[in-house]
Amino acid sequence: MIIHLKDANRCVLSPVTVYEIIKELLSAEDEVDRDKEHFWVFHLDVRNRIKLIELVSLGILNSSLIHPREVFTRAVSNRSAQIIIVHNHPSGDCTPSDNDLAVTKRLKKAGELLGIELIDHVVVAETGYTSMEKEALL
To answer: What Cα–Cα distance (Å) separates residue 79 from each residue in 23, 37, 67, 112?
Structure first.
């Protein structure tokens, strides 16, 4: 699913921007779907402007299936310069899991091969977020 923002020139200047956008998207969803893990990709141009946001995976309560092929397909075809990946933790704890760290490492390597930089992975919960870039986990 592709999400286009009303503000076509919106820039991502910090993880707070990502958090605010995702909170807005989640609040618009049905309550049942809000309790599932979502995995989004923010496609950015060279000036950190959002080209589009893609929902790559809608999972279950505590996991979602992620593969580099799905994460980078649209990034390649839309010539994204860089991406930010984002997923939510319905549990309310925004601490990245071991699996989150492993997926991030795999996606970072894939992006390096493709020349599409992964600049952050933001884990969102109801009351906050964790930026893997800011926490030096990227």
So the answer is: 27, 27, 19, 14
Structure tokens at 132: 């893997």
> What's 96's DSSP letter?
P
Q: Which residues contact 102 (CB under 8 A, 6 or more apart)?
A: none
- What pTM value is reported for the model? 0.91
Q: Give the amino acid at 122.
A: V
Matching residue, tokens 């820039």: 11
- The structural domains of the chain, ordered by start, are 2-131 (3.40.140.10)
pLDDT in tens, 22-41: 999 888 888 888 889 999 99
Our CA angle for 29, 104, 134, nearest 5°, is 85
